[in-house]
Design brief:
The structure is a single chain. About 90% of the residues lie in helices and about 0% in strands. By secondary structure, the chain is mainly α. The radius of gyration is 43 Å and the shape is elongated. The relative contact order is 0.05. Keywords: Membrane, Transmembrane, Transmembrane helix. This is Receptor expression-enhancing protein. InterPro entries: TB2_DP1_HVA22 (IPR004345).
């Protein structure tokens, strides 16, 4: 357990943080040789961490396994051994160069399939959302109709006979109210008469 913790710390500090800071310095100084050196390192380190997932599961019982990992990370970083440059130039670059077209085609196909899958699941998601909206609307329709029923004709008639509305009419004397109604009738009748005579 102790050797596992130490190996994790060494990989974190010397395998990740120190190279990240050195990469920052290379970008800041715009030194092409440093760019190339650290790009080779990060390619090898990415492969190392990918393989490490499986070796940690199956080979952790080997004696000195974690010590070998620490030694490997130090070998990759060392400016004397230039381990990452050696591995990249002898193994990784020739392998990737020979398989580059196949890898690019595979990545293109994976992108197309992932796009098709995304569209397919997007449509399914929209269908599920639409179905849920329709179900919610049909369930909520009963509540809506109950609320609409509360505004029945009886409610409207009681609103018209509301004392607030009738108070404006009650301010006029009853005789004046009767007079205004015949005047309105006579005006409407006179308009009708003009229309008849105009034709």
């Amino acid at each position: 357990m102790v050797s596992w913790i130490i190996s994790r710390l060494v990989v974190l500090v010397f395998g990740t943080l120190y190279p990240a800071y050195s990469s920052y310095k290379a970008v800041k100084s715009k030194d092409v040789k440093e760019y190339v050196k650290w790009m080779m390192y990060w390619i090898i380190f990415a492969l190392f961490t990918s393989v490490e997932v499986f070796t940690d599961m199956f080979l952790c019982w080997l004696p000195f396994y974690y010590e070998l990992k620490i030694a490997f990370v130090v070998w990759l970083l060392s400016p004397y051994t230039k381990g990452s440059s050696v591995l990249y130039r002898k193994f990784v670059h020739p392998t990737l160069s020979s398989k580059e077209k196949d890898i690019d085609e595979y990545i293109c196909q994976a992108k197309d399939k992932s796009y098709d899958t995304l569209v397919h699941f997007g449509r399914k998601g929209l269908n599920v959302a639409a179905t849920a909206a329709v179900m919610a609307a049909t369930k909520g329709q009963g509540v809506l109709s109950d609320r609409l029923r509360s505004f029945s004709m009886q409610d409207l008639s009681s609103y018209q006979s509301d004392p607030v509305n009738s108070s404006s009419d009650s301010t006029q004397p009853a005789a004046a109210q009767h007079r205004t109604r015949p005047m309105m009738r006579s005006k409407s009748e006179s308009y009708k008469g003009e229309e008849m005579s105009g034709t």
